[in-house]
Design brief:
heterodimer; A: 197 residues; mainly alpha; Four Helix Bundle (Hemerythrin (Met), subunit A); 2 domains; 6 helices; B: mainly alpha; 7 helices
Chain lengths: 197, 209
């Protein structure tokens, strides 16, 4: 009788353990089919923006980094650092990182040095990419009350992508005003010239 | 079987049931609608519409033909380019196209301020209504466009496209001495607060777009 009890107990525990492990694995993999996988396209978009921002920053002469269209409006360097700062801040919020902001006060005006700014852009886009990549489908619904009573993590992903697009448009206009053709447009034009179009 | 044995078995089964239920709930939450992409898109489009229309209204009519350099879109052409995106790209998602709309020549079709402001309102409403009318299942449908292979991807691009050219338009406005109306309003509020709090101190204003 005693043996039967022990066997039952062992079987029960093994079964419970197996179910718990399977549930944990399922949750970690998050293999459920989302209605639309926004994460994939958000990452593709963000990677494209990363390339465009860095190549544009590389094409702008170092002495133009302090150019601004009017007094009181962000300079070229300040726009780049604004984008980098928000990427770092929002990535940190998505990862529920420590309460302290990853961006120090005055970050946007902290440097006008071209190489340093390009490093910051690279670092910030990598952080945003990593934070979004780690998200499971269910994480997109996670409330982010800091951003509003109904805000969730999906809204922050939207915000990162749209905010970056907006400042890319601004940065392209800044480049044009300084006689700089965006490198991807220059490449396209060169290709067209080569093929005789 | 003794009471002890039965209790253990019941406890194990209860544990298994609880784990299964909690796992099932997670799967349901993740699978049904983890994030409402359409709702997010419409909210972002409404924001872009409000800003772009107010910016277009603030731009003097004679500046609509201004461009930063030869061969680059003018103020009017950028606004109409956004409209072309909203009309044309939204139709790609499967909603009925705007009757008579053609991409070709649309950007250069007018430089009239009032017409352009009306078109901006119309094209944003078209995109917002079109996206709102899509179902969850529509978002996963394929689209014949390599860069944006599904309807959901096109929806994201419509919003991104509008925001990118909003940023460009803000820079154009600044180059022409026009402060974006929402920034002007924020500056006014800040000045009033400063005046009320400490009339003698003049805190530095942070730079803006």
């Amino acid at each position: 009788m005693r043996k039967i009890q022990i066997s039952l107990l062992a079987i029960g525990l093994v079964f419970a353990g197996t179910v718990a492990r399977a549930a944990a694995q399922q949750s970690a993999k998050d293999t459920t089919a989302p209605s639309y996988d926004m994460k994939a396209q958000a990452l593709v978009d963000l990677d494209g923006l990363h390339k465009q921002f860095v190549s544009l920053a590389e094409a702008i002469p170092a002495d133009k980094f302090t150019w601004r269209p009017a007094a009181g409006v962000r300079s070229i360097a300040e726009v780049y650092l604004h984008v980098a700062g928000e990427n770092l801040r929002w990535a940190s919020d998505l990862e529920a990182a420590p309460a302290a902001s990853p961006v120090a006060k005055g970050y946007e005006e902290s440097t006008t040095e071209k190489a340093k700014i390009i490093d910051e852009l690279n670092k910030s886009f990598s952080s945003a990419h990593a934070a979004i990549e780690k998200m499971a489908n269910a994480d997109f619904a996670k409330p982010m009350k800091k951003y509003g009573p109904d805000a969730n993590a999906g809204d922050i992903v939207y915000l990162i992508v749209m905010h970056t697009h907006e400042h890319l448009g601004q940065s392209i206009a800044y480049a044009r005003m300084n006689g700089v053709v965006p490198p991807w447009t220059a490449a396209q034009q060169a290709q067209q010239k080569k093929s005789g179009n | 079987m003794t009471r002890f044995g039965l209790s253990i078995l019941v406890l194990c089964l209860a544990f298994v049931g609880a784990v299964s239920r909690s796992s099932g709930q997670g799967a349901q939450a993740a699978g049904s609608a983890s994030f409402n992409v359409r709702q997010g898109a419409v909210a972002e489009l409404k924001e872009a519409q409000q800003e772009l229309v107010s910016l277009a209204q603030a731009m003097p009519a004679e500046k609509y033909t201004w461009r930063p350099a030869e061969g680059i879109r003018s103020v009017a052409e950028v606004y109409l380019h956004v409209c072309a995106g909203n009309f044309g790209l939204t139709a790609l998602t499967g909603v009925p196209a705007k009757p008579g709309f053609k991409f070709q020549g649309f950007e250069k079709s007018t430089t009239d301020k009032k017409q352009i402001v009306d078109l901006l309102n119309e094209c944003f409403a078209f995109a917002e209504n079109g996206i709102s009318s899509l179902s969850d299942a529509d978002l996963s449908k394929p689209v014949k466009w390599d860069e944006y292979p599904t309807v959901g991807d096109v929806v994201l691009h419509i919003v991104a496209h509008a925001h990118e050219h909003l940023g460009q338009s803000i820079a154009y406005a600044r180059m022409n001495g026009v402060v974006p109306p929402w920034t002007a309003a924020a500056n006014q509020r800040r000045a009033q607060r400063q005046q009320q709090a400490a009339p003698q101190s003049q805190a530095a204003r942070p730079p803006q777009n």
